[in-house]
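Sorry, any thoughts here?
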Amino acid sequence: MGEGIGNDEAIMPYITSANIACGYHAGNEVTMQQTVLLAKKHGVAVGAHPSFLDRQNFGRTEVKTTPAEVYQLVSDQINNLKKIAAAHSILLHHVKPHGALYNMAAKDKLLAHAIAQAVWDNHPGLILYGLSGSFLISEAHILGLKTASEVFADRTYQDDGSLTPRSGPSALIEQEAQSINQVLHMITKGKVTAVSGKEVPIVADTICLHSDGKHAAAFAQKIHHTLQQYSIAIKTIESQIL
C-alpha cells in the first residue's frame, strides 16, 4: 500500500494488515502518512514494506548488495515509517520486505539474517512476514522474532515453493476463480499447486495481495467474502509486546 496505485481506499476495508511503502521503491512521507491514517480508520495493522532504493524498477530488480547494506536500508525504512506512525499514536505491527529484496532473502541465508537482525534491533516485538518455508522465516526464528508465513493470492509457485519469476508468462494470477481456488487450497489443505502440477507443502499464516494487480480491489473483496462463507476467521496476527 502507499505505492501510488490509487486503489488503497478500495482495498483497505477487506484486509487486516497493510505493507506500506517506505519511500525507497515508491511513496514518500506524505503517502506514508496518508496510508497510515487510512489504515487507522479501518482498524488495519500497519507494517513497513522495505525495499531496495530502486524507484525506476519499482524495487523488483535484483541488486548486488551485502548483508550490511541490507541491514541498514531495512533499519532506515522501519524507522521512517515508525516515526510517522508514532505521530498518529499508531504502533508498527510487522515488517514485510518488498519485491527483489524479499525474493533474494527468501533464498539467501545471509540476507535473510540481515533483515531479521534489523527488525530485532529496531523493535523485537514486530512480526516478520516472509515466504512460507524460506530463510526469512527460519532466520527470524533463530533470533526469537515472531513470524508470519506468507502465501500469495495473485502469484504462481515453483516446485521448490518459490514464486514464479515475474519475467515468466505464468507468474501472475489474473483470473478470480484461480485466485480463490489457490487461497482455499493453501488454507484448508496446507498445499499449493505449482505451475508444473506438483503439490507443494505450505504454511499459510497470512495471504498477500499486490495492490498493483489488475484486479486487486475485486480480488480483495472476493477473497474476504469467500473466507467468510467458508467460516475461516479473518483477523490480525497478534504481535509480541516487548
Residues 8-229 form a domain with the TIM Barrel fold (CATH 3.20.20.370). The CA atoms of residues 132 and 149 lie 5 Å apart. Residues 67-86 form the longest helix (20 residues).
